[in-house]
Amino acid sequence: MWSEAINQMLRQWMRKGALTLHLPDGTARSYGDGTAPQVTLRIHDDATLRRLALNPDLALGEAYMEGSLTVDGDDLHGLLELVLRNFGGGRRSWWNLPGRWLRKARRGLDQRNIAASSRRNVAHHYDLPPRLYDLFLDEDRQYSCAYFRDPGDGLEQAQLQKKHHIARKLRLEPGLRVLDIGCGWGGMALTLARDYGVQVTGVTLSEEQLKVAQRRAREEGLEDRVEFRLQDYRAVTETFDRIVSVGMFEHVGLPQFDPYFRAVHDLLAEDGVALVHTIGWAGPPGSTNPWIAKYIFPGGYIPSLSEVAPVIENNGLWLTDLECLRLHYALTLRHWYDRFTARLDEAREINDETFVRMWKFYLVASEQSFRFNRQDVFQFQISKRLDAVPITRDYLYRSGLVPRQAEVETLDRARDHAAE
Amino acid sequence: MWSEAINQMLRQWMRKGALTLHLPDGTARSYGDGTAPQVTLRIHDDATLRRLALNPDLALGEAYMEGSLTVDGDDLHGLLELVLRNFGGGRRSWWNLPGRWLRKARRGLDQRNIAASSRRNVAHHYDLPPRLYDLFLDEDRQYSCAYFRDPGDGLEQAQLQKKHHIARKLRLEPGLRVLDIGCGWGGMALTLARDYGVQVTGVTLSEEQLKVAQRRAREEGLEDRVEFRLQDYRAVTETFDRIVSVGMFEHVGLPQFDPYFRAVHDLLAEDGVALVHTIGWAGPPGSTNPWIAKYIFPGGYIPSLSEVAPVIENNGLWLTDLECLRLHYALTLRHWYDRFTARLDEAREINDETFVRMWKFYLVASEQSFRFNRQDVFQFQISKRLDAVPITRDYLYRSGLVPRQAEVETLDRARDHAAE
């Protein structure tokens, strides 16, 4: 019965690519138009069949984690390309089964993100052993979309470029006070303080991240210019000349969008500039994928532009620029995947095989969502006065303006050379 | 009684700047904090007092047109700065008196913009004698926000830069088919055909504009590359590699936002790029100022981003870039005002004094709305595939890519020189 339900579903939806499905009873069936990618999937027991038929969004990732579903050659990229190109994208999302009303109600509960649950949700992900992140992130532990001037750029270079691209958008001058909302392991704050001479306050809810960030500030001798705090951004009371928030808004949750931008408004000086960098959804609002919500980012929510625009407008802020970085995150995630899979033995020392497979599934599902679904990255540049930034965006693309760091000057020269 | 009502209103709201008000009975009162601008306003009869008290949004412009209200030194810029800084801006708009529901209902009627009323509304403004537009526009008759690399740029140069900035965003290649929705007097279409070798179809609802555009195509010998039509964009049936629409979306009206972007989707090739350039409102949705709706742009509506984002998302389109040009339109309008007022004698030959004053009020009110209210300009770059444009925006800011026109090469050299 369950195998027939799955057969019906695949016959109806599988149009692009080729899928061969091996069932627990030893039979096999093929679907699709025979084009690439060609994927062979094996389901090893009847219970998995049943779960996949009833709740595919959650069960696919779970069955892969457990090993009750395998892909020949471990071709997760191929599998998730098939899933997203045939069941996702466009106006329909492969996980949007419950109705709009139900989704709204669930969102209200899952994403309440009052101070206590925020801290718990953050701990779920960011208090994992720091060693885990060393396996796949760059040296500065930038855990967000990098900026590739060229798709062939290395990860270290692209993360460096991301920090300086954001720094340019912030229009920094020595001595300015900068608030970093969701400062992570401190890489952005330290870069801004070191290379631009600003005073940075970084807030995080992760104790593990705080420890690392504070140690790095000490080691770099930047304690007089950078202060890290274990603090909810809603509890910050000072005002700042600049606000930067990278890869944090994804955790805010819809019910907190308005308070978030109200805080940006209230904490920002009158002539200030803010830069909010977040994963976005380039389609009508949807719900968070249940597998991601359960295993990776509880309480998170990927915003559509139509959900962010009203809260910017309602809080009296100017949107001065919106850049959409889409494929940069696909490139970033591929680097992370390649690094992670090159060090699987070390990963298995940190946690068990199920965790390792979960992490692989997370990295690949995310990458393929940027390539084959409507996942996007938004950089919102925001101000309170319409003349807080120059009238053209030339300043973002001119060389010779930026950092003192020798490394980056080299990058800039390489870029100018390429442009000639 | 009416003078007392106005007195109360001014005492309550006039905080910034200085206003001296001379009443019909010969008395005068002062308001504000004494800072610039200092404006002296004279109301010459009791009927005008009454209308101003009851319906200031409409009456201010009407009384100025009739001459029953005058400003010393004809300082309309000062007057409208006072109005907008004290009664507009922020979360409150000086004209948003009726409630949200009433506004919605009115909008439904005023902005229905079915084909017949669209044509009538367009004729109201764009079928005015072409000579009128020669008095204040640039030589190419670009009737939309220019692009100032430097605030000191001249109008001719800034309009040229605008066309080429948009052309870069369109990623043109010789031979591509381009649709220009709302082509005006044909300047953009002719520039794209001449300088980028593309095939352009321009549609307009203004018979006067069509005649001028067709004549220009003949005179320039571009008839084989440019076709102008008197056609509603909703009646276009072909598909195009590129779509450009500049200063037209303001006339679409809220009820037609979804059909407009559905048309962009349906008329655009799969790997196509569209650029929609429109005045926008950088705050929560409001209503059209009644004076503007009655005298200048019947059927028009200035969109908030929160009203455009959903229709982009719902129609399966990618927003690949959003530039906010705000002050560029203030600069443009100041050029138009300066040109217009330098040729008032010629304007009076075209129409009567009331019309001339109406036009001045329109130009100044618009300029000051960009400076002191939340008026903005949005350039939406849109595609159907996420890889239709390069992954960074460098291509918009690199020199040496663009047009064959000697003029523009000179501009590019000047710019590179300035950047050094």
Automatic annotation (TrEMBL), chains A, B:
Per the UniProt record, one Pfam family is: DUF7884
Q: Residue limits of the DUF7884 domain?
A: 8-85
Q: Which UniProt keywords apply?
A: Lipid metabolism, Methyltransferase, S-adenosyl-L-methionine, Transferase
Give the matching SUPFAM superfamilies.
S-adenosyl-L-methionine-dependent methyltransferases (SSF53335)
InterPro entries, A to Z: CFA/CMAS, CMAS, DUF7884, SAM-dependent_MTases_sf
Q: What terms describe the molecular function in GO for this protein?
A: methyltransferase activity
Annotated GO biological processes are:
lipid biosynthetic process; methylation
What the record says about family reads: Belongs to the CFA/CMAS family.
Instruction: Note the PANTHER family from the entry.
Output: CYCLOPROPANE-FATTY-ACYL-PHOSPHOLIPID SYNTHASE (PTHR43667)
- This protein is called what? Cyclopropane-fatty-acyl-phospholipid synthase
Q: What is the lineage of its organism?
A: Bacteria, Pseudomonadati, Pseudomonadota, Alphaproteobacteria, Rhodobacterales
